[in-house]
Design a protein that fits this description.
This protein is an all-alpha fold and 355 residues long. The protein contains 15 helices and no strands.
Length: 355
Amino acid sequence: MAALAAILKALRRAVGRDLGTLEAIKVNNLFLFVALLVAGAVSSGQPPKSAYPFFVLLGFLLLFPLSSDPLARIPRARLGLWPLSGRQKLGLRFASLALSPVTWIGSLILWRTARPLLALAFCGLAAAMQGALALGRCAVQRDPHWNVLGGIPQFPGRLGGLVRKNLREMLTMMDRYAAALLSIGGGAYRIFGAHPDAAAAPIVGLLMALTLSTGAQSLFALDGDAGMTRCHLLPLRGWEILLAKDIAFLAILLVLLLPLDPWPGLAFGLAALAVGHKPSVRADLPQQRWRFASGNIAFGAMQTVGGMGIGFLEYRQGPAVLALAAMGCAASVYYYGRRWEREYRLRGVRPHNSV
């Protein structure tokens, strides 16, 4: 029993740290936007119906990390080395279920609604999602061609390899999949709606750009120390490395915007990158894969207000506004690329191709 208690105590700490990473959504631009919708509805004395679709979207995506197996946090090789009997391993399996957030949420649903079928349906959905992920991992192990991220083609040009690497990193953040669901919903409404509103496409596009904008504040967060060192050893200037990040970000945004009116959303994305270069270069905003991006509230507010304003202006005035946003983003890339070189040089490492 002492061995099981020690293992469960360590698992509890691991689950707590994992749940702590979910708090990043508090400083995510999409979450802040939803919070403003709720606050506006409550202050006016109306139910926040406009925020319900976003709650469903965020809840569905958060269910993937919440429903993960607590025992999966223990490396399989280490678990195999522990001197546990079959009965102890079975007891550990059942005891670990109590540490799963899905169990807590299912119990809360049962307590508040007194509807066991609803609680079982919720737990069944979480189990089905984890089963699908497990099948996907097995398929990748059997045949690497099933690895969608690994199948991203090499891009041409001097920065092609970096762009490919950045795309693979950015597609491990949940913000991209939230934007993809918005793109699917907006495209379906535009194609199959009986009388679709002409203004709906650019508005949904702006919401998609807002969903992705938090990640523009931490473009280097997933590289890690080793990745940063490799970047500085490349025969590239700082602005080129930052440009490769921007190309990957804008490529994802543009593909998702294609079912809609892409230009207002693209103008928002350029503005979000121009604002996000400073925290990307100067601030330390750690991120974790398969979570929502976290950011800074002040920069998030500038991204949201500035991006929305530029996006609406582009919708009304046309491509000239998009060109101005691109010029502003290019100037920001050059300036903060040089700042990125200087920051690293101050830490005692000289970039390979610095002047």
